[in-house]
Structure formats: C-alpha cells, structure tokens
Amino acid sequence: MNNKYSKEMRFTKYTGPRFFVRVLFNAVGLWIAGRLSSNINYDESLKVILIAALIFSVINAVIRPILVILTLPVIVLTLGVFMLFINGFMVYLVSELYGPFEVRTFGASILTAIIVWIVNHSLSLFFASSKIEVVKD
Hints:
Helices cover 66% and strands 10% of the residues. The chain is mainly alpha-helical.
C-alpha cells in the first residue's frame, strides 16, 4: 500500500531495539556453537544461553572496542587475523564471568566466536533483505 501515510522500513541492526536483537542473534549463535562443540557446556538450558548472550553482548559493547583500540597495531600487522583472538577472548570472558556457560578450551572459544559471527552476519543479511511495511493509522 503506497499512500502518503505508509512508509517502507527495513529491519536492520540500526532500527528498532538494536541491543535486544543483537542479544537474540548472539543467543542463537551461542546455542549453535554449543550444539556443534563438545567443549562448550551450557547444561542444555535456554536460560543459560540467554544470560550468556546478554553478558556477551554487554562485553562486546563495552570491553571489545577498548581492546580493539589498544591492539590496533597488532590487528593492522596481522591484517585483521588478530581479531579472531580478541573475539575468542570475549567468549572466554563470558565463560569466566558466568559459570553455567562453560567453554573448556581457548580454541573452542575462538570457534564459538567464528560461529557467532557467521550466525550474526547471516541473520542480519536475512532480516535486512526483508521489508516490513509500517502503516500509520
């Protein structure tokens, strides 16, 4: 319906409740990583995954930018490969801060970071390509 009272809206990470969408995307990624790896233990609990995703999202919003700035020369020298270690460290921090979500090895935390990134990217692309029509009454 294209009239002066309707507009087309794209659902992206910049619209709507951005933080809560990220938490949900991270929860899906953590759940998939937990299902794929035997080195990740979350007691098969959705509550544990949601809390871990919330902690992961907060850590990514607060600590990760500071760490990226501090390690920028190393990131540039390794052409961005060092970001895998930073992202793995973020997952490791979640494991240390929240006991019920356990990542046993640092390699598993790097693998988890890769899986979470792939899931976040895929879901963002999927929802960004969906058109949501908002009709003003």
